[in-house]
Fold each of these.
Amino acid sequence: MSVHDFWTPFALEPFISALIIGLSLASIWLVAALGLTIIYGTMGVINMAHGEFIMLGAYITWVLQYFLGFPWLLCLPISFVIVAFIGWLVERGLIRHLYDRPLDTLLATWGVSLVFIQSIRLIFGGEPQYIDTPEFLSNVVQIGFLNIPSMRIFIFGMALVLVGLTWALLYKSNFGIQVRSVMQNPQMAASFVINSSRVYGLTFAYGAGLAGISGSMFSGLKTIFPDMGLGYVVEAFLVVVTGGGELFGSLATAGIMGEMFSVFSYFTNDTFARFVLFVLIVIFLRFRPQGIFTPSMARR
Amino acid sequence: MRVSRRNFVKGAAVGAAGVAAAFPQLYIKDHGQAWGAKPWIYKDGNVKVGLLWSQTGNLSVVENDSTQVSLFAIDKLNAEGGIAGKQIEPVVVDAKSDIKVYSEKMTQLILRDRVATVHGSYTSASRRAVMPIIMKWNHLYYYPTCYEGRECMQNIINTGPLANQHSYDLVPYMVKNFGPKVYLVGSNYIWPKESNKNVKVWLERAGGEVVGEDYVPLGGSEFSPVFNKIRQQEPDWIMSTVVGDSDIALHRQFLQEGFKSDKMPIAALTTGEIETAAMGHEAGAGHFLSAPYFQDLKNPTNEWFVDAYLSSQYGGGGVTHYNMEETYLGILIWKKGVERALEEAGGDWEAITPRMIRDVSGNWNGQGPVGLSDEESPEGKVWIDPDNFNIWLKPKIGQCGSNGQFTIVKEAPEHVGPDPFAIYPERGVCKADGLHKPDGTIQKDVL
């Protein structure tokens, strides 16, 4: 193999395309990581079942479309609601007994993830499923020399919307104030008549719902099968941990990771880019384990 | 909450202990029956055969079908009277898509279950993991999937196409019909890379050139960086060795990127009927697949096979595809091997060894190698190569239509023989007793 096979020389137009692709990758990773930012970053629950919430979102979309004929866009909010409800059940039935034993949540949620994968496999079988997306999301948008699939533009837009909504919910609403106070000091919050167990349940449900809607969106771009969650959970954890568990940390990390991956893989190749990116993250976390943005307040 | 290093180590230890408690088979070594002169098939027992596939994990997408079609074939043989009156008893294990589990389960099948033969594996990785165990016990493995070759072992029979049979016809066909420039995309493991070495040799002969080559991780589903380079290089067609769930994402994103299959088709070696159903018919239409078998093949044996399989209790997947058919052939060919071994052993079941089944499947008693006729094999007549124990078959090129089924656009006029060292002539020639090297020595068990 010569150097030339390995190294793609710089050319302006494809390089700019690579930057755009970086944004698209960043938005996909961000959407996948958003729910985890809430559940792990804010609540401190090491949720190994996060990928399976994404998978459930995709399967709910498939069921709604395949058996009930729902249009794809309508499936997105419905799968948010259903997965949020499943998340709420998981929190009420399992996670809430483990808040004082955070590391046990790792094992418990891993068990939950296995239950989800095997249930889906038992009910629908292991083969990949097909979801139809609307015509306008199957096209490519041409701007000069740039060819951008409309599905990727849609996911990018949705990522911004979801981040905006989450930010407004956490930092601009009464519920957000309750969430942040309960996460800081549940006893103190309780003395201000905040029902902390309700806040925990709803926060977890919201995080799970975000995973569900991301699964719905990915169903138009990626493959739907019972083990698909594994493909997202690694990147999601990297984004959240490197971002310091903060909403804007995740936003920044996803952006940097997406661009770095896309540019590396433009100059070299996909495999090597992945390798370099993971090595850089390990080195970064060695010297800055608290992540890009240090949480500005005391946490539980 | 903060995760300190100490807490994490503690947590990990708790986790490991939990896993160990839940899965004792991970660490309790087999101390079943001692190895000895016990027969592999008892006079008054069944013929036990191991089925080593994954029913769980990412490989289960394909391997679950392999298990189902094997059980279907065994049911069929048993209903027809078994092997010389003896019933076949399948021992199904789940390899959980984990290479280590393949090795463990293989040891279990040989030592504890004492099966006479094992059928299994969809990937080269798992085949290469279990073969040392098979060879250690001088046992027998049937591998039903296309693979790269470059191996010469005396304990394996393959019923799928080798790299030299697989892309041999496809590359000249694509160069002739679409043009010389090709972009290679594959999954990142041994089979795509070795397969592409063959592709490059055939490409050179056909006057084509490689304008780019990329590999994505197994299970990866992000192809936009690759498509960016493809747009830049403007190949005439794409050669894909992307497998499994990634393959579906590749085809869907091809369509979403605005590429057209009539301008720049994807020629694949593994995109079968399962995949075209899951990617949507629009995404599959117009692309090419080289395989010895397609569900839509028009012949009475295949029509029977498709009907009987899909209406049986095993046909829940809804399609038949090349890998299932090759698995089915493996069971039928194995049955013929056992019949010959029984004759070789003078009717004494207990004298049959796994290795004997393999040896008599080649040239034996002047009868030539075992094979299947047009009436037995859905893909048409096939037979085992008496030297390297791979299969002679007719490669076919299919183009996917708008219904997810393939139309045959070219069928090899003659059977093409397997040649595991086709692009490594300096390594030697694979014969029944080992690899005959150019210096005259014979190397056994070349993995």
Note: Residues 3-287 of chain A form one domain.
Amino acid sequence: MNVNDYLIVATIIFCIGALGVLIRKNLITIFLSLELMFNAANLGFVAVSEYLNLISGDIFVIFIMVVAAAEAAILLGIAIAFYREKGTINIDDANELKF
Amino acid sequence: MEALFYIFSIIAIVSALMVILVKSPLTSALYIILCFFALAGFYILLNMQFLAAMQIMVYAGAIAVIIVLVIMLLNLAKIKGAIKDFHQIAISIIAIGLFTLEVILYLNAAGEKKPTGIYTNTVINKIGNTQIIGEFLFTKYVFPFEVASILLLVAVIGAYIFAKK
């Protein structure tokens, strides 16, 4: 398969993730859309790294997985704290800093 | 190979669409696990079996389980209006659709680039997939590796402080 086909699939998945961040209100679903964007970037790295006969892209994917795991822990901690405070995880209720 | 690529891409794109379209967060989490498995199939097609195993273990194993656990802890039944109003959705869809179109046009217009590295598929298969990643991770990329461990420590402490009452 051509590298362009992999990159087009990665682009479509990335844009679906970005659309999910824009149109959803639920904090958990926004987090899932962020994970979709991470995974699309990973697919692009692996495809280009295989096309150029390099290993660096594959190593980078491992570091992106580390960052995604750290982000999952932090964001779900925020979700639990927010739910304790408000009783909901609708992001429209996160307006404490609004003037 | 070609047929497998199309099967994996259809599964990945349809499950990614379902993640952002279904109402229940738990169903979204199950669809994203399906999407992770399809992406692991892509990594196997790209001759990176170690990354496919990591994808299934870290994403489908660890992260998805944490998400499902948090959904279990929170009572999400009373969230109303999970999607924003029509005007915002229309603008978002047009903007994102334009972006997709532009990137695909750019990819089709981009010129050929000659492969620069020495790690072709035969070389990787001769040395061994896991071994070559391990060698790179502990020699050339050892400093980012240590920084990643510190990042994980900070994330653990941060999650504890956030979730503590």
Note: Chain A has a mean pLDDT of 88.
